Amino acid sequence: MLVIKDLHAEVEGKKILNGIDLELAVGQVHAVMGPNGSGKSTLASVLVGRELFKVTKGSVTYDGHNLLAMEPEVRAREGVFLSFQYPVEIPGVSTSYFLRSALNAVRKQRGESELDAMDFIQMSKEKAKLVELPAALLSRSINEGFSGGEKKRNEIFQMAMLEPRLAILDETDSGLDVDALRVVANGVNALRSPDRAMLIITHYQRLLDYIVPDKTHVLVGGRIVKSGGADLAREVEERGYRWIEEEVGAASV
Amino acid sequence: MSEQTSANDLFEPGEYKYGFVTDIESDVAPPGLNEGIIRFISAKKEEPEFMLEWRLKAFRAWEKMVKDEGSPAWAHVKFPPIDYQAISYYAAPGKKKQLNSLDEVDPELLATFEKLGIPLEEQKMLTGVAVDAVFDSVSVATTFKEKLYEAGVIFCSFSEAVKTHPELIKKYLGTVVPVTDNYFAALNSAVFTDGSFCYVPKGVRCPMELSTYFRINTANTGQFERTLIVAEEGAHVSYLEGCTAPMRDENQLHAAVVELIAADDAGIKYSTVQNWYPGDKEGKGGIYNFVTKRGKCADRAKISWTQVETGSAITWKYPSVILQGEDSVGEFYSVAVTNNYQQADTGTKMVHLGKNSKSTIISKGISAGHGQNSYRGLVQMNPKAAGARNYSQCDSLLIGDKCGAHTFPYIDVRNDSGQVEHEASTSKIGEDQIFYCKQRGLSEEDAVSMIVNGFCKAVFKELPMEFAVEAQKLLNVTLEGAIG
Amino acid sequence: MAIAGSKKKWAPRRYSRRIFLATSAQAKQGFLDAHERFFAADPRVADNSDVHTRVAELRRIGIERFGMLAFPGPKNEDWKYTSVASLVAADFDPAPAARSEIPVDRVSAIIDAAVSDQSAQVLVFVDGSPIAELSRNLDEVDTAVCVMSFEQAATENPKLLSENLGQFLDTNAHGFTALNSAFLSAGAVVFVSAGKHAARPVHLVFVGGVQDKSVSHPRTLIIAEPGSSATVAEHYVGLPDSSYLANAATEIVLGRGARLSHCKLQREAAGAFHVARIQVHQGEGSEFVSHAVAVGARLSRTEIHVALDAPEASCSLYGLYALEGDAHADHHTVIDHAQPRTRSTELYKGIMDGRSRGVFTGRVLVRPDAQKISASQSNSNLLLGAGAVAETRPQLEIYADDVQCNHGATIGRLDEDALFYMRQRGIGPGPAKRMLTLAFAAEVTEHIADPHLRASAERAVHERVEHAVLGGNDGADAVHGSGGVARDRGNGGAS
Predict the structure, then answer these.
(1) Could you tell me the pLDDT band of residue B471, with boundaries at 50, 70 and 90?
(2) Which residues in chain B have their CB less than 8 angstroms from residue C364's CB?
(3) What is the domain-level CATH number for residue A207?
């Protein structure tokens, strides 16, 4: 479903990704771990088409299409969803109005009919339960005045509404306490499906206690230096990133 | 000037009509302002011809302004009209009255020195007491000069520069503040007697803060001071003028001009502490301080103004930056305090011409007693200044119910990619803040001083270290008696 | 986002001072002559009733002041960013417009578009004259509020007019206000009885441009007696494709504890000139809410002066200007905290597309000994067009110490992060821009309490924004969507 080949990317002339290879099959959940500055969030940004990030080499195909050639909103309509690390606040635009517009854009792409206001409300009520998001938040401006936990729950709620085929979760656990983490993780787990792939980007392993990945990749210096199963995440948690860096260093000598 | 005396008459070589008979040997010019006086000043200072021409051009511009509009009236300050013909525009340096010991100095002034922690020798310097041999200012100055000379930095009095580096003066003088710029700048250009000149060559980082030296030099600052600082490509210099000690001066009117030129990648940091005599508690006396300060920034250059204005009866001053270059940066950090009957109308102009130029304005005004404190600023982004940014914050603090705090920002953006954010607030010190401090055992005075210093922190941190400490003390001294 | 139109040349719309002075003097003389012709021997003054004496006096003072003040020139600091050079050069006919044939269908359509509520009370003026046939529901007996033309008021309640008209309007402000008084002849009176609450808004509709090149001087007097409350809307509209000058003045007096919501919707024709001054005098504990929406006219200037002249009075001023093309709109507000414990809030926003220019000046004055004041002011501007200009001057002038005052001003483009966030959720750049722009505007219009008026204001802004954001440049998705994947326009439309 998602095939990343030799992906190189830079930000304002600074090389961040130095040849990423990764294949994600439909129905699978992969975790990408890495120390600060390893390029995790850059990878997420490149996949959704942030203009600041320039791809200098390599390719990304999504269902056989060239993902990098698509505009950000086209990627979204094709089912690529990013749960932002720092969801932006948009004053004056209510969450429900915004989301209905987004949902109808996505549905139209899928060849489905537009949802009317009643159906939308019905649907959002159901999905909001998934992440225990108070319905009152839906009538407020997008993320404005939301707590850190509410913002992240709002992201997962939107993911539930938009039903993406590829969900990228960028540091979704950052800034969450244990209870909020559990709520968010439960929401994500409920959305695991044979029709959906997920890429979970995280610094810590604790999210992966709740969302057990099929595969774990360790990103160091803009490259995937080690891949393994769910155990790899636990190993990283216990031993830190240093040993991998050393191992890689030794291997490359 | 009367109508009958045309400019031509005055230009008649060798003969000054208009009854101007001052002997060139004289040390003091008679009161009054005319072309003869300008020629006298220029001759006294043995200036080259181009300087005289320049001064005369300024004088004519000033005369025209006097005729057309008179002294500018837009600032939020009130003062009786100044009689420019009653002022003497030249006195040879070093002719100030000398005192024999500190005992002859106003005890109130000495008490202030004590509070500010100013060394005894320096106190003498500042009050015009003859300095004894222990403190050899000349040798200190010489040491500095040698060090600067090694680095290739030219730093001298303006008069000296006119003689030793006329080509530099000719090239740069008036290029940032033209003689026709404004009333007081024109006046200054016509009659200035001295000031400082600093030239930092390409790629040179000035090895020291140009502060201590200046502080020694500053005791003889003239009434119409002229400063010109040039930082060539990639050069950096930090310059500090003024003094925390209260400056007494016989001259009521001060009109200085400062020009800064920062070439590509250069950086100039200009810090001022202004503490001229503010007048007494009833508002009698005090200096009128009308200053034009402006810098020009080329590509990636940066000019940063920091000022602490606590003195003068009237302060009229808008240190500005013309952001000509791409990615150039302008900064303005200001603390202005008005107590008793002081009036301040100060702020900045940030004129964005270059792409991605950035400016920051932080202004803190404090009013006490019957003081009137105005922030007046302009942020302008021209059509070519794509991606320009500005952030401004102007806060005012009121102490007492007879003072005033005013904010007059002008924001003018002619570019859809420009971005400006301006915030301002005015309030008095919170009673709950004072109470909180008192509850922890502080006196009211200490509490206010602490809160005021906190209010100014964002500006003080831009001052060179040792000066920041003095500035804080100065603030406390200035606000003495304002509380309770 | 690419910097669009950076090659576009910016030409200052300045006339030389000399030309301005000449045309301005000529236009001034035209008005002086017209005044002489029409009002020097006004037969109506001769009947010596109080109203006519008062009107004659106001006209005399007005023309005297206008003679001294003339039109504001480039050296007038209050008009620094607004040049009236194009106005004085427009060659308007200064004579009061003679009643001519009114194209009823066209005018009715304009009125219906302005006031969709068919049951509302509407008083209509065309080129400055009241038109009973176009007005609606005025004879409905409402015990709370009374809407009359000056003519009616002069017969039904002469004292009301003679005692209040011109009492607070500052004719010294500049030539336009003086001119309004000088040519005073018709106008509207809204009177809200003490202690009464008017449930529905009263609408005044001023239609301009039926006679091309005409000048009208609409005058409105609103009196809210103690303890009353009401909503009054002033609509300024005009025949499209016509050029005219509407020079309005409104006086508002709020008695003790009165509450008034005032809504000015400026939707003049694109070629029109519009100058308006609203002067408000507030009694103790009264509450004034003002909305000023400007989407029309080639050049418009709206001045709102509020005197919080008694303790506990409060006011809220909301404004929104949405401009395109070469339009120029200037809003100039003064809030005078003359007495203790008065409060004010102010929120003005501008949306400038094309080469339009939005100007805002907001002066907040706190007088000596007016303690316990709170005043907050905000002005935000969105620049959509590469040649658009925003100028803002928030001013605080404070002479008392127990105050909480602040102002903020911003100028910028739409937030790139917000735009990207929306696109990541599948919304195209055009609809995303529109959604963000409308949200920006809605933060002002949402404060209009009356649903009809709010809808009417929103409609005016939507039309303008729709045109601006999706009108020509990069609104549609057409430029996006490489990669051979089918696209659509999203559904960002109004719900």
Answers:
(1) confident
(2) none
(3) 3.40.50.300
Question: Is C464 part of any domain?
Answer: no
Nearest chain C residue (CA) to A67: C483
Integer Cα distance of B95 and B28 in angstroms? 9
C426 contacts on A by Cβ (under 8 Å): 73, 76-77, 102-103, 105-106, 109, 162
Touching A: C residues 1-20, CB under 8 Å: 1
B404 has a chain C CB within 8 A of its CB:
yes
**Cα–Cα distance, C110 to C118 (Å, whole number):** 13
Residue from C217, C103, C223, C210 nearest C161 by CA: C223
> What's the predicted TM-score (pTM) here?
0.85
Strands A14-24 and A2-11: antiparallel
- Degrees to nearest 5, angle at CA C295 with C441 and C328: 110
Domain count, chain C: 1
- Residues in B touching C8 (Cβ below 8 Å): 383
Q: Does residue B393 belong to the interface with chain C, where contact is any CB pair within 8 Å?
A: no
Lowest mean pLDDT among B350-364, C128-142, C179-193: C128-142
Which residue of chain A has the CA closest to C419? A90
Which of C367, C377, C366 is closest to C406 using CA atoms? Answer: C377
Q: Residue B14 phi/psi, 5° resolution?
A: 80, -15
What is the C-alpha to C-alpha distance for residues C217 and B336, in angstroms, rounded to an integer? 47
In order, the DSSP letters of C278-311 are EEEEE-TT-EEEEEEEE---SEEEEEEEEEE-ST
What is the C-alpha to C-alpha distance for residues A211 and A173, in angstroms, rounded to an integer? 11
- Is the separation of the CB atoms in C433 and C265 below 8 Å? no
Nearest CA of chain C to the CA of B373: how many Å? 10
pLDDT of residue B101: 72
Report which of residues B269 and C151 the model is more confident about.
B269
Confidence class of residue B108 from pLDDT cuts 50, 70 and 90?
low
Domain holding C390, by residue range, is: 7-414
pLDDT digits (tens, 9 = 90+) for C46-98: 455 778 888 889 999 999 999 999 999 888 889 999 999 999 999 899 988 77
Residues from chain C that touch B400, judged by Cβ atoms under 8 A, are: 401
| Lowest mean pLDDT, pick from B164-173, B262-271, B390-399, C482-491 | C482-491
**Count of Cβ atoms closer than 10 Å to residue B441 Cβ:** 8
Distance CA B124, CA B286 (A): 21
> Among C320, C422, C425, which would you mutate to test the A interface (most chain A Cβ atoms within 10 Å of its Cβ)?
C425
Q: How many CB pairs under 8 A join A and C?
A: 122
Q: Is B70 on the interface with C (CB under 8 A)?
A: no
pLDDT of res. A252: 53
Q: Tell me the nearest-neighbour CA distance from A68 into chain C, angstroms.
A: 8
Domain count, chain A: 1
How far apart are the two ends of chain C, measured CA to CA in Å? 28
Q: How far is B426 from chain C (nearest CA, A)?
A: 5
Determine the Cα angle at A204 with ends A199 and A205, to 5°: 75
CA distance A114 to chain C (A): 9
Q: Say if residue C2's pLDDT is above 70.
A: no
**pLDDT above 70 coverage of chain A, percent:** 98
User: What residues contact residue A110 under an 8 Å CB cut-off, 6+ apart?
Assistant: none
Q: Residue C358 falls within a domain, yes or no? A: yes
Residue C209 lies in a domain: yes
All residues at 6 or more sequence positions from C202 whose CB lies less than 8 Å from its CB, including other chains: C120, C121, C123, C145, C147, C190, C230, C231, C232, C233
Helix (H, G, I), strand (E, B) or coil at A116: coil
C423 in reach of chain A (CB within 8 A): yes
CA distances from B417 to A131, A156, B141 (A): 39, 34, 49
A35: three-class secondary structure by DSSP? coil
Task: Provide ipTM, 2 decimals.
Answer: 0.84
Residue ranges per structural domain of chain B: 7-479
